Amino acid sequence: MALIVTFLLGMGNFACHRAVIHSGNRMITDMPTRTLQAARISSLLFEFGLLCGAFYAARAGELHWIWLYAAYFAINAAAAWAVVTRRI
Fold first, then answer.
1. 22 phi and psi, to 5 degrees?
2. Which of 2, 5, 62, 86 is the right S-S partner for 57, CB 3.0 to 4.6 Å?
3. Contact 35, 47 (CB under 8 A)
4. How far apart are CA 46 and CA 42, in angstroms?
5. Distance between CA 21 and CA 36 in Å, rounded?
6. Which residues contact 40 (CB under 8 A, 6 or more apart)?
């Protein structure tokens, strides 16, 4: 069950990431092209690394790490919502 929850949280994080990148927010569109491309790649790699760590923790039965990953998702979702709705 922990692996399923972790998978769903990870999908949510990647969905938030995609929503921010494609939001058309001025913060994104004003970046130089090369910087934006580097930021996209590095942030995706960071997200993937966190997801791999959360999967490892879920497999090992360390549920407190899953709760921390869920808190990270909540913060990530709130920040994505703020960017997409142009509150930032």
1. -95, 15
2. 62
3. no
4. 6
5. 9
6. 21
Q: What angle do CA 53, 20, 80 make, to 5 degrees?
A: 70
Q: Cα(61)–Cα(59) distance, rounded to whole angstroms?
A: 5
At 16-58, the pLDDT tens digits run 999 998 898 888 888 899 998 999 999 999 999 999 999 999 9
Contact between residue 33 and residue 14 where contact means Cβ atoms under 8 Å apart: no
Q: Rounded to the nearest 5°, which phi and psi values hold at 59? A: -65, -35
One-letter identity of residue 21: I
Q: Tell me, yes or no, if the pTM score tops 0.90.
A: no
Q: Computed over its alpha carbons, how large is the radius of gyration of the chain? A: 14
